[in-house]
Design a protein that fits this description.
The chain is an alpha/beta fold and 498 residues long. The chain is built from 18 helices and 10 strands.
């Protein structure tokens, strides 16, 4: 692939000046169009050290409104960043709708330099490329324009430029030891690049290979393709496909499993048994908290359930004896205006715990396939697509060593009504009961279908659903802590045998 590039291609100064000025004006106009259309643009600049990426980037941004873009240089991950999945730091830096994000190096550093220097193992690389493909597809399907460039140099040109930079007092600081490792292992780096290009040049995120020995040629080619990618993305927005609208499903098909009906809601604990078992499980969890901190194991406990199912009470008992410095409860409602400017998973990526800590999610990304589906906040295309996106998200977490424990607290309609009425009569709990709770209750057949389908389509071996009988709050609270304890113990055993 790379050896087919004609690195002798060049442009004379006069032709270059004429073309570059026209391209820059087009790009400035497109920046305004992206702002108007609320279209995010992601530009990935990869290539050899000294390939001219920095000079190219500086030229581009000199023509642009600085309020509408951000430049994100990517260096070796910090010790703190290594406590998260490798894509976490890039989700953090994604541009909001209407802005441009330049990634000077990017998530592909893990596939190339980190791999060359043996910081990423051969076994990790295919999984990371799988995650990259999912990441890029999710962004493009959500409306982002994605342009990826690999600027290629001959070995002779690479060595020449590195020497020139080292000899320049103003440029020498830019030459890193890693840059010379690229030149020393040129053929191996080429092979890694070929593999990366093969596995990650997809319909959603194709690579543009750029002949880089002539910097003028490289700049014009990059800018020409960038303009084309943005124009195509804006044109796609003008095409309004016929919306996918199915008749709301109020009953499961005979072939669909009914997980909720299979739950034994009569399970209960006496007050005495509850107190004893709760104490035992809380002590076990407190001891495990020290072990997960020592081994840098991140834990996510995710809570969904019917209104008034007891999520808050279960979370309180889960955290009662934990060290508050090592856990965080994240409660989610409708996205804020700021959060709505990003892919819907963005706000959840930002809240995942680092290694050694526990992240508790009171509501979660599953709102996409429940309340957003039922209330029409997500289109049918969006919520159907979300099953795959959620499975990919959780696979990235579990592959990175996260313990993911998912709970759905199930109660009967009769028990829910009893709790609603109790809240209405209790001045200390009236704030918990809203008109929305009553509206959701009227749509319980729609929610029952959505919940069962959610469990069927997103319960993976590494991140299964725990459907908890919650008519009896005592039983539910103990069952939740037991499930978290068991999941952590399983992960500790796995690590001890690996």
């Amino acid at each position: 692939m790379l050896d087919t590039l004609d690195l002798s291609l060049s442009l004379d100064k006069e032709t270059y000046r004429a073309q570059i000025e026209d391209l820059m004006r087009q790009l400035r106009d497109l920046q305004e169009a992206c702002w108007q259309e609320k279209a995010p643009v992601i530009i990935v600049l990869e290539g050899w050290a000294a390939a001219g990426k920095g000079t190219l980037l500086k030229k581009i941004i000199n023509y642009m409104d600085p309020r509408g873009f951000a430049v994100n240089p990517t260096f070796q991950a910090t010790e703190q960043e290594r406590l998260y999945p490798f894509l976490w730091r890039f989700w953090e830096k994604l541009p909001p709708r209407g802005s441009l994000g330049f990634f000077y190096h990017s998530w592909y550093t893990n596939c190339l330099e980190e791999r060359l220097l043996k910081r990423v193992t051969p076994a990790q690389a295919p999984l990371q490329m799988r995650d990259i493909n999912a990441f890029e597809r999710q962004l493009v399907e959500d409306g982002a324009a994605l342009a990826k460039f690999w600027i290629h140099l001959s070995r002779k040109e690479l060595k020449k430029r590195l020497k020139e930079y080292e000899a320049d007092d103003l440029e020498s600081w830019r030459v890193r030891p890693e840059d010379w490792q690229q030149e020393k292992h040129y053929n191996e780096y080429c092979a890694l690049t070929e593999e990366m290009l093969t596995y990650t040049s997809t319909g959603h995120g194709p690579w543009t290979l750029v002949e880089g020995d002539c910097e003028r040629w490289a700049r014009v080619k990059v800018l020409s393709q960038l303009v084309a990618v943005i124009v195509q993305a804006l044109d796609r927005r003008k095409i309004t496909p016929a919306p996918v609208v199915s008749q709301p499903q109020t009953v499961l098909l005979p072939t669909e499993p009914n997980f909720l009906d299979a739950v034994d809601l009569s399970l209960s604990l006496s007050k005495e048994d509850y107190r004893q078992q709760l104490r035992e499980e809380q002590i076990a969890l407190r001891r495990l908290q020290a072990e997960i901190f020592q081994h840098k194991i991140p834990v996510i406990a995710l809570f969904e359930g019917w209104d008034a199912a007891g999520k808050g009470g279960a979370i309180k008992r889960l955290t009662d004896t934990l060290d508050p410095r090592s856990y965080r409860v994240n409660a989610f409602a409708a996205p804020t205006p700021e959060e709505a400017r990003y892919h819907y998973l963005w706000r959840f990526w930002r809240k995942i715990p680092e290694g050694g800590r526990i992240g508790i999610f009171d509501r979660s990304w599953y709102g996409r396939v429940m309340v957003e589906r039922i209330e029409g906040f997500a289109s049918e295309l969006e919520w159907r697509r979300a099953y795959q996106e959620i499975n990919e998200f959780e696979a990235q977490l579990t592959t990175s060593g996260y313990v993911v424990v998912k709970f759905f607290l199930h109660i009967s309609p009769e028990e829910q009504l009893r709790r609603f009425e109790g809240r209405a009569q209790d001045s200390f709990k009236q704030y918990k009961l809203t008109d929305e709770d009553w509206r959701n209750r009227e749509k319980s057949p729609l929610y029952a279908v959505a919940i069962n389908q959610m469990i069927a389509r997103t319960s993976a071996p590494a991140a299964p659903w725990n459907v908890i009988p919650a008519n009896d709050k005592y039983y539910a609270r103990v069952a939740v802590i037991q499930a978290v304890v068991k999941a952590i113990q399983v992960e500790l055993r796995r690590r001890s045998h690996s």
